[in-house]
Amino acid sequence: xxxxxxxxxxxxxxxxxxxxxxxxxxxxxxxxxxxxxxxxxxxxxxxxxxxxxxxxxxxxxxxxxxxxxxxxxxxxxxxxxxxxxxxxxxxxxxxxxxxxxxxxxxxxxxxxxxxxxxxxxxxxxxxxxxxxxxxxxxxxxxxxxxxxxxxxxxxxxxxxxxxxxxxxxxxxxxxxxxxxxxxxxxxxxxxxxxxxxxxxxxxxxxxxxxxxxxxxxxxxxxxxxxxxxxxxxxxxxxxxxxxxxxxxxxxxxxxxxxxxxxxxxxxxxxxxxxxxxxxxxxxxxxxxxxxxxxxxxxxxxxxxxxxxxxxxxxxxxxxxxxxxx
Amino acid sequence: xxxxxxxxxxxxxxxxxxxxxxxxxxxxxxxxxxxxxxxxxxxxxxxxxxxxxxxxxxxxxxxxxxxxxxxxxxxxxxxxxxxxxxxxxxxxxxxxxxxxxxxxxxxxxxxxxxxxxxxxxxxxxxxxxxxxxxxxxxxxxxxxxxxxxxxxxxxxxxxxxxxxxxxxxxxxxxxxxxxxxxxxxxxxxxxxxxx
Lengths: 325, 195
What we know:
Number of helices of chain B: 10
Shape of chain A: extended
Structural class of chain B: mainly alpha
Structural class of chain A: mainly alpha
Shape of chain B: flat
Helix content of chain B: 55-70%
Helix content of chain A: 55-70%
Oligomer: heterodimer
Strand content of chain A: under 5%
Order of helices and strands of chain B: HHHHHHEEHHHH
Low-confidence stretches of chain A: 1-11
Largest sheet of chain B: 2 strands, antiparallel
Radius of gyration of chain B: 26 Å
Strand order of the largest sheet of chain B: 1-2
């Protein structure tokens, strides 16, 4: 026989002195105990998911391009800032591998380069005219006055530099022809602007080569890297083939990117040859960037260029360019 | 009464602790950023005086031994940033024409301390230790990368004088005062023995 268990305590018994009376929990109380925290958690999860959805939907190629083209400079720069942040993230692989988006940005860079070159040419003509007028009066333009003329072009110049960097953050080499053009253009009215554009273009080529290798081809990926699947690569190539028909610049850029992605054509659009020509530049900082960029591109001219740079004697001048410039 | 006096003692003790914490916090806050300036081995100045022997004619006018030693104590010749980047790229590609002299120079910790300089707020020109050691670590990685290309290693040959200088430089780095460099150099030496 088992011993009888003690009777459960109830309110019928007198509570010990000093303690409040104990009442059994009601169904409503138990529901409140779980329901209220549950509702709080549900609202928090809803808010997080909602904000994630809103943020993600604002990072579509169309919305980013809309912001970049906005007439309001505030919206334009905010969009530019967002794009710069988003493109580098591992989770933005699809965006950084979107051929249409890359081609749209390439078109904008092409326009921006043409505009800035035209603006620089006009500014140089204005400067020449002003200098001539001053010379007739026996005066000379000061360096400060000349600099102030160039500083007026800061916004379009920064726009070019920004788009240059963006094209380097893609995993597909759409920007190679434009970046190569910028890297090879060594003449212009303002030597500092030309030098800075060349340096940024070579830096962007280095980034682009690195991104293509790691994120598109899956060579030596970093632990945080996401690489494209075979289906995604096939979709990119198919999209580029659609874009490649025609004679527009856009079609030419698409056609030039295809051999690299399909590993079928000539040595990677001749980036090795472009970098080799840049390796002969007078700017020693540019040459050190070229040596860095050659890590990420292949081709028959890579090793000869590197061997030449490995014997570099530091010739030429190293132009220091500050924020004020 | 006894309980009250205990309370006062505990209060005083707590106050003491708080004073110590506030003092420590203030010390950390007001101390400001301080970094130990790395010490340098003796400079090249004494050797400069020894290089020239004004009492003799050329070639005796130059103390060639001192000149060679002086070369070792100066920063690298102009263009070293370009050369270093190129050599790392060549090593990663497994080039059979890798300039080992430049690679050995990159593995010279003291040379890198002379190459990478930083100017302090008080105007002193001191070695930029972080940048110098980053270059040494990059060079160590480049050594390992190059050895992964067996065809290049075979083409160069294990008894190549330049390559031996690189191995000697790696050996020297295993005695580096910096733990990270020392450990990496040890790892490189182990991986070279395996390969």
